[in-house]
């Protein structure tokens, strides 16, 4: 999953990057076990994909795209290692937007 994300990141292919990015989020949300919440977040995520393509394309700070990619790598690693404290820290800055702009 992160290999594809990395390929899209390295090639600066924004739209495929955003789609793969959301697949990572969808997988995390599904694993939470709350189907109503999962479906609600997927619906919002699909709307986000449309707008985020434009956001990634116009953001003037080049570290925005890089931070997104690094966050996803770190998040998947922390989940695989079952490091809940690190997952929480990553999510607070990633989903909360702290440090992006």
The residue fraction in helices comes out at over 70%
Amount of beta strand: under 5%
Shape: globular
Any low-confidence stretches, pLDDT <50, length ≥5? Answer: none
Total DSSP E strands: 0
- N→C terminal distance: 26 Å
The sequence of SSEs as H and E is HHHHH
Number of helices: 5
Overall residue-averaged pLDDT value: 80
How many separate domains make up the residues? 1
Oligomer, anyone? Answer: single chain
From the alpha carbons, calculate the radius of gyration and give it in angstroms.
Answer: 13 Å
Biggest sheet overview: none
Explain briefly what this protein structure is.
The chain has helices at 2-10, 14-31, 35-58, 63-80, 84-94.
Descriptive report:
This protein is mainly alpha-helical. The chain has one domain (2-94). It is built from five helices and no strands. The protein has helices spanning 2-10, 14-31, 35-58, 63-80, 84-94. Helix 1 (2-10) runs antiparallel to helix 2, helix 1 packs antiparallel against helix 4 and helix 2 runs antiparallel to helix 3 (35-58). It is globular, with a radius of gyration of 13 Å.
